[in-house]
Give the backbone structure.
Amino acid sequence: MSPKKKIVILGAGFGGVRAATDICRNLAKLNLNGKYEVVLVDRNHYHTYVPILYEVATTSKDVANQIKLKDIVTFHLKDIFQNHCVTIKEATVSEIDLIEGDVHFQDAEKLKFDYLVLALGSETNYFDIPGLKENSYGLKTFGDAIRVRDAVWDLVDSRASNEEIKIIVGGGGATGVETAGEIKAWICELDEKFKKCPASVKIIEAMPTVLAGLDQKVVKRVLKRLKAINVELVLNEAIEKVEPKKVFLKSGTMIPFDVLVWTGGAKASSLMTGLPLKKEKRGRVEVPGVMQCLPQTEDLKFYGKIYGLGDAICFTNAKTGRPIPQVAEAAIEQAKVVAHNIIEDIKEAEGLKPKSQPIHYIPREYPYIITAGGKYAVAKMGPIVIGGFFGWILKGLVELYYLLFNVLPPFQAIRIWLKGLWIFIKNDRLG
């Protein structure tokens, strides 16, 4: 009996999980599980729901310990794929050989692929700013969120009642705004010994405004909210270097801090950098509408077929000429396209249809929700903008929808969502 052909998916983020799920379901429908194997590779044994890491970073230890928080933010891959034909491999990739068709791991093991899906996500971009990485906290993983929480908690626990806690959030994108607002609201009610809020929270942003590129109605409401909770904005200022407890701006200004959280940049996984794939002018792997990666030069021949999705690649919107935003919904939709096109290719190879019929990923305007401290959020869905407590309610419903239809079995999804809702309700003040 010939060995199974392998569909290898690198990365268990939003796109990787959805691609694995769709491919497996379709292989089962075609009775091809005996000929094809889906292998999902990630360095962790779990999938992380990244959009709520800022809430983990600002949840009091009195409300939930690390174990409880991990239970509502990370989901075991075995639980996600308990009814699907996915082989889960927990390993760290060291090299990808597209010519020979091998994925190399740090333990020197190799895995051959016939189809490869690059869903490696992104990593923090420090833009070579001296001292930034060494003197700041990131917010990309569950571990990062816990380290931010512990750092802020320890500050509050050790400070005298008349001492000000200085927090800087580098970057005024969605993550930066959400993190700054939540930290401010959290510290202001964290310890009863403070008669007034002991925290100075600043967002440093190189652009003229926070949330650059988002709808102005959303930005206006968020700015009003940040002002109301006294989050300070330092705009049109780029960080030049960072020393212990000091940020130096290019204008010459020095701002002291106790904790610096860096959310100001992301770049594709470093594993993507050296691959001989077609790239756009800034160096990111660029894919066309069928989501299949192209060789850097025409004479290159790959071993199998290579696909890319999510934050690992760059997809340009033909209508606007701009890269699409790196959001979960885009990665999930791209994963559906990748899964469909791989299955179509398999159907043709197996003689189930004379010619494959690939589909194209068509970008659209995605709805989004920006929280701004406590139970306050601004949501944009098409032309409609909803702000305040109802925006926060909508955010919770979106999270439930994701768990139910993309990750977990219904009973488990509802249980975890209710558990998380209870924790965050106890942790956040109203409005």
Q: What stands out?
A: The chain is about 30% helix and 25% strand. The chain has a mean pLDDT of 92. The CA atoms of residues 236 and 285 lie 30 Å apart. The first helix runs from residue 14 to 29.
